[in-house]
Specification:
By secondary structure, the chain is mainly beta. Helix content is 0%, strand content 48%. The strands form three sheets. It has a six-stranded antiparallel sheet with strand order 2-1-11-10-7-8, with no helix packed on it. Strands 4-3-5-6-9 form a five-stranded mixed sheet, with no helix packed on it. Strands 13-12-14 form a three-stranded antiparallel sheet, with no helix packed on it.
Length: 144
């Protein structure tokens, strides 16, 4: 199972979300997207994300806006590329930071890191996101 974590900031407000890649996901300005980006330079549905043989592929479905993944321009109208771990995606004026994680056991419980609030497997001693040791545990949740 693949997990995708994205974080972004708009007008000083930080947002993050983790999803299980069990179906196609979407990124864009419209409220019904999996990842909603409130940026007027982002299309209503800017991109789709899907699991292709254990890798996450991002496809730019916008007819008017390119996106940038790392150093690569992903062309409008169907350009696509594979997302690697720890990569930045630029849509409009918004930078998104992506983490791609392979989880062997879908029943693994996740907790929020006490320092950075990102999802980590329960029992993790050092957060792989911020490298801080865990002195406490936030509420556990199971990925759906």
């Amino acid at each position: 199972m693949l997990l995708l974590y994205l974080e972004w900031a708009i007008a000083g407000s930080n947002t993050s979300k983790t999803v299980q890649m069990n179906a196609q996901k979407s990124i864009g300005r419209n409220a019904d997207n999996t990842f909603v980006i409130a940026d007027k330079q982002v299309s209503g549905v800017q991109a789709t994300l899907r699991d292709v043989a254990g890798s996450i592929v991002i496809t730019n479905v916008s007819r008017s806006n390119n996106i940038k993944v790392g150093d690569q321009i992903v062309s409008k109208n169907g350009g696509s590329t594979e997302l690697s771990d720890k990569i930045t995606i630029l849509m409009g004026t918004t930078s998104l930071y992506a983490r791609v994680t392979v989880v062997e056991d879908s029943t693994v419980k996740y907790v929020a890191c006490t320092t950075c609030s990102r999802p980590i497997p329960e029992g993790t001693e050092i957060c792989p996101w911020c490298d801080n040791s865990q002195s406490g545990i936030s509420a556990a949740y199971t990925m759906a």
